[in-house]
Design brief:
Elements lengths: L5 H10 L3 H7 L6 H22 L4 H19 L11 H5 L2
């Protein structure tokens, strides 16, 4: 997979027609049932993260999408069992 340079990442993201394209482009494994259920929220969080981070390259874009995906998943966990998720800081390093 070609990882576009800084100037092209925003253009590449704008070309996506589905959140699945973004997940595949950024090499993020996903559960289709989860994506089907949370598509709009995932897209909103992803785009918000991109704006906040001013994504400049593939890694910034991946981090923005991964954090969006994980934040929604973490929000679905029982508050007592959230410790199973190590939180967003561990995802940011991936």
């Amino acid at each position: 997979m070609s990882h576009n340079k800084a100037g092209n990442i925003q253009e590449q993201i704008r070309s996506f027609t589905s959140i699945e394209q973004a997940l595949n482009f950024f090499e993020i494994s996903f559960d289709q049932t989860f994506v089907d259920s949370y598509r709009l929220e995932l897209l909103k969080r992803f785009l918000g993260n991109l704006l906040l981070s001013k994504a400049a390259d593939w890694f910034d874009g991946r981090r923005a999408l991964k954090n969006a995906y994980c934040k929604i998943q973490r929000g679905r966990l029982d508050k007592k069992s959230r410790s199973a998720c190590r939180g967003c800081t561990s995802c940011e390093r991936r």
